[in-house]
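Final report, results section. Input specification for complex C-07:
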Amino acid sequence: MARQRPSVPRRMERTEEAMGRPSVGLYFILPAMIVLAMLIAYPVVYTGYLSAVDVHGHLTGKNYLNVLRPAVTRQAFFNLIYYVGGSIVFQVILGTLAAILLNQKFWGRSVVRSITLIPWVVPGIVAATTWAWMFHTEFGIINYMLTGPGLLKAPIGWLTDRNTVMPVLIAINVWKLFPFVAIMVLAGLQAIPADLYEAAKIDGAGFWEEVWYITLPQVRPVLVAVTLLLVIWGLNAITLIYAITGGGPANLSLITPIQIYQLAFQSFQFNEAAALSVLFFLVAAIIVAIYIKVIPSNAEAAK
Amino acid sequence: MSAVAGERKQRATAHIVVAIASIVLVLVCLFPFAWMAVSSIKKLPELFTVPPHWLPEEPTLANYWTVLFSSNIPHYFLNSVIISVGATALALILAVFAAYGFARFEFQGKAFLQSFVLVGQLLPTAAIIVPLFITLRYLHLINTYWGLILVYMIITLPLSVWMLTSYMRGIPVELEEAATIDGASRLGVLFRITLPLSMPGVVAVVVYSFVTCWNEFVFALCFAQDASVKTLPIGLSEFSTEFNTDWGGVMAASMVMTLPVAFLFLAFQRLFVGGLTAGATKG
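Structure output:
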């Protein structure tokens, strides 16, 4: 981002001349900034305070100890990493493949493009209930489709079996968000100059060689940005899991955001919930920071 | 000759691959909705038939009747509309000014404030529900429309500012300069020139904000616990977590909830996708 900046200042100078004193801009952004500070900066600081005091307002480290000690915290954290990591791999791969497909010329392409976006636009809760119904052990259509032709001998309790619950939740999450990757990558694909492909054709490159040597390097910045968003959305994701399993069976699909919710609104341990929030916030910040640091330098090294 | 024939054959294979892949893609994306629609017009005994029927034997609108006339869903629908429209409108007003400030002025701390807006977008919302709850309770805004409208600013405002800023940057300054020379005030320039030219960006922001608020779940779950202000997502989740889930009713309610979003999206698809992807490809 920083590299693209030089073109901006000159225009800005001219704008300032035309528009008056530099500080005027502040008045325009002030209302939005006040609202954001009130709703974001203040709660973040307040969480830090809450996490370090007990119910009477005395300083204590007990909240952190109480939150870190139980094994369930660790389990929720690893579930979260598994859920986010597993989802992202497939979201990016399937999303990119879908984008490559949607970038081909074929009859009915614009309709297929619109349809592809539907899973992403639909409310998460609707996706959750519909998939929960489809994965229903006795009456679900998925068990019927698999047992009918003999792919499965007996119906599986997809959402109650300890081995299937997380993979199924990941699959639903992938279905929900791969369209987002697809539109973003598609926009990136459309921005690739056609002469690059023509040059490759002349050099005798096949379809997959084009994908590997031209398409992927060209859409890399889009992929980086999209993956970052997916990481953040993934860390935030409560709706699907909360609505489908509620973290069960036996905490097997419990993730940290749901644990925070349960601590605060079911056990009413606000201070402990705040301590867990702080830890969660730090981990999320570290993951995002590592991602931002590592990926661009990798991209540079690759060039 | 053989080379040409080979190429033709290759092209035919490519066509077939593309056709099959498109069909699979469409099926994967649409099947759950098709099944939702089919289930919503089945009678209860037929929903619990093994093996399930692909098409209902006696289609019925009874589930819709239940949802529309003897459940809380219409009330929740109204709540969702009020809250989503309120949050979208408020975010839009604030974002128009902020975006104009960011796009057209240079001032101290601008880079910092811009990254603050971006951080707002990246914030893990689960980490701030506790202090937000305490703050809202202190302000007596729990279980009120205003509480949720205010909280939804967190999700809608940063992206609205971000999208509108990049849109306004793309509008030539010369137009504004001409208007200033003709004696227009700064606000006059914003409302008579920049804003009308930003209409596609504004529409994209409105659609995005509305859909995000309409779909939002976690904040609604925590801050609107009373039936008088509950939104549709919460209503739907209660429908389906009750002991004996009325799946026909759930599917009908899901259809009711999906339709406005699907309509908005189909109507404004081009603007919406354009506004969203512009940021990503321009960096």
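Chain B has a mean pLDDT of 86. Chain B touches chain A through 97 residues (CB under 8 Å). This concludes the modelling results for the funded period.
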